[in-house]
Amino acid sequence: MPLATRRSVLSGAVTGAAALSAAGYAATPAHGASSVGKSDTVRLTVLGTTDLHGNVFNWDYYKNAAFSNSAGNEIGVAKVKTLIDAVREERRGEPILTIDAGDTIQGTPLAYYYARIDPITKGAVHPMARAMNLVGYDAAALGNHEFNYGIDTIRKFEEQVNFPMLGANAVDPTTKLPVFPPYIIKDYDLGRGRRLRVGVLGLTNPGIAIWDKAIVEGKMEFPGLVEQAKIYVPELKKAGCDLVIISAHSGADTSSSYGDELPPENAATLVAEQVPDVDAILVGHAHREITERFVTNTETGRQVLLTEPLYWGMRVSVMDLVVRREKGHGRPRWVLHSATSQTLNSNTVDADPDVSAAVQEQHDVVVSYVNSVVGSSAVEMLAARAVVEDVPIIDFVSFVQADAVKTALTGDDAALPVLSIAAPFSRAAAFPAGEVTVRDVAGLYIYDNTLMAVRITGAQLKEYLEFTARYFKQVSGTGPFPIADVTNAPTDTAPNGTPDYNFDTIAGLDAALTYDIDISMPVGSRITDLAYGGVAVTDAQEFVLAVNNYRQSGGGGFPHVTDATVVYNQQVEIRQLLIDWVTANQVIDPAAFASVDWRLVSGGEPITVNS
C-alpha cells in the first residue's frame, strides 16, 4: 500500500533551505565555519532525535491512515532525514554530529513484526536499521524499550546499524564494566593541524532492571546515570576531548515511576548539576519537548545545555556549540564559548525518498498483516470512557488473561478464584461491529507485555485497588464533571498527572469482583463495598491475580505484586494472546464476559462524568 503523504516527494518537495525555513529554523552566525581552516572560532552542530519508537513513515498502523493528531504533528525517520540533510547542507564544511537518545526498536506494528513475526534474529533486516543507516547517525544511546524483545534482538540490531549503541550504565553484574560501548570519540580536522575532539557518552535508564527484569536479571545491571557519568566524563577529558556531550535516555525533570528502589529514572538534570565538564545533554525517555534549557553545575558554576526533541521524529534538536581556541599550558585547546539549541518541526517537510524506498516493501507487508481479519465483534466496543466506567472492551482483556491463567494453573492454585488487571492503554481503541482485524486488537493492547500471575490476599487486593484509585482527582458532589476534572491526578511520582496506563481495574473470571471508588474521599480511603461473588472480601482470602510483566516487575510502583508468589509465567505476549483468542473463537460477544463491576461514586452515590 503506497504511503499517504501530505506533499508528494516526487513533485514540489520541501527540501534544503526551504525545508529549514518552513521547519522554524533560526539561522545563527557561522563563526567562520565556512572557512574553518582560518578561524579560531568554530561551531559544532549537534543534531539529535529520541524516542523514535519504530516510526519510519508518517503512518498510523492502528488507524490505517497517515498519522495525525490535534497539534498537527507528523512523524517518522523519513521526515527526520529531510530535516537533517537540510541542516547539513546549510552548514556544509562545518563539524556536525548526529545522535539519538534511545527507544528505537519498539512501538509500532512495523517494529513488532520484525522482532516477533519475521524476526531479525532469523535473518530479516530491521526497518529502523535501514532507515537510521541512511540518516547517518554517529551514535545512539540505548533506550529501555530496546530490551523488550530480549538481548539477542538488541545484539542483532547492534550488528545491523552502522553506528554504535552506547550504554555506559548497562554493566556486567560481575565486572561492573559496560557490556555496550560507553562512549565514542570523534575527531574533526579543522585545518592547519588543528583538531576538535568531541566525546559522546551514552546513558540509559536504571528502570530497565525493573521493567525487563525477566530479560536482564543476572545478565546486566543498570547503575545510576550520575554515578557512571562521574566515571566516564573524566575519562573522556583525559583522552583529550574538548567537548563532552551526553545522550541520555532519561528525562530532565527528576522523578521515578518506581519510587526510591533504584537510582532516579529521570536524571538528566542531576547529571548536569553534579558531573563537571559536561557541555550539553540530549535528553530522551520523557516524551516531552524541551527546545532549550540551561542547568547550572553546582561544582563549576558552568551552564549545561539540555534539549529534548519531541518523540516519534516529530522534532529534531539542533544544538550550536561554539568553541574558541585558547592558548594555555601545553597545546592550545578549544573552549566552549556559547551553547544554544532549537527544534525543527517535521510536519513542514516531505519524507526523504531514499528512506521511503528502502523500507516501503517492509511497510507494505506489515500493513497487509495488521489489516488481516481474525474474527468479528457482535457489537461495537469502545475504550473512550474506560477511564471513568467499566466498559466491555476492557473486560475482554481481563477475561482473556484470566482464562489463560486459569487453564494453566495446577495443584492448590487451581482451586483459587482468578482475577485479572487491565488498563485503558488507548482511549481511541475500538472494536467495530462486524469484522475485527489484527490492527483492531493491537490498537487495544499497544504494549509488548507478557502475561504473569501471582497469589495475593484480600487485604493486598484492597491495597492494590486503593493505590490504583490515586488516578482520580478528589471531587465534591456527584457532578456532572468533565472527564479531565476527575482523571489523571498528579502524584509525587507523576507530577504531570497519572497516565492512563497506570489506572488498573480488576475483574473476576468465574464470579464478579465488585467495588466502588469513592473519589470524594482522600487517597487511601476510596475503595468501598469490595466483594467477590456478592460476598465481602476478607483480608485472609486468597486469589490468583493475572498481571503483565511490567506491573509484576514494579512498573508503576503498585504494591505487593512484585513480592507475591508467581504462579504463572509462560512468557506469552498478551497482544498475541488476544489475537489468538479472537482467531480461535471467531466472535467477540460481550454477553459472554462483560459486566459492570466497578463504578465511581461520591458518598456512595454514582458520579456523572460527561465526555
Please give a structural write-up.
The protein is α/β, with parallel strands linked by helices. Helix content is 24%, strand content 26%. It folds into two domains: 39-367, Purple Acid Phosphatase, chain A, domain 2 (4-Layer Sandwich), CATH 3.60.21; 372-610, 5'-nucleotidase,  domain 2, CATH 3.90.780. It has a six-stranded mixed beta sheet. Strands 7-8-9-10-12-11 form a six-stranded mixed beta sheet, covered by helices on one side. α2 (77-90) runs parallel beside α4 (127-135). The two termini are 35 Å apart. The model is unreliable at 1-13 and 32-36 (pLDDT under 50). Belongs to the 5'-nucleotidase family. Residues 1-32 form the signal peptide. Keywords: Hydrolase, Metal-binding, Multifunctional enzyme, Nucleotide-binding, Signal. It catalyses: a nucleoside 2',3'-cyclic phosphate + H2O = a nucleoside 3'-phosphate + H(+); a ribonucleoside 3'-phosphate + H2O = a ribonucleoside + phosphate.
Quick summary:
One of its GO terms (biological process) is nucleotide catabolic process. The chain is of the alpha/beta class and about 600 residues long.
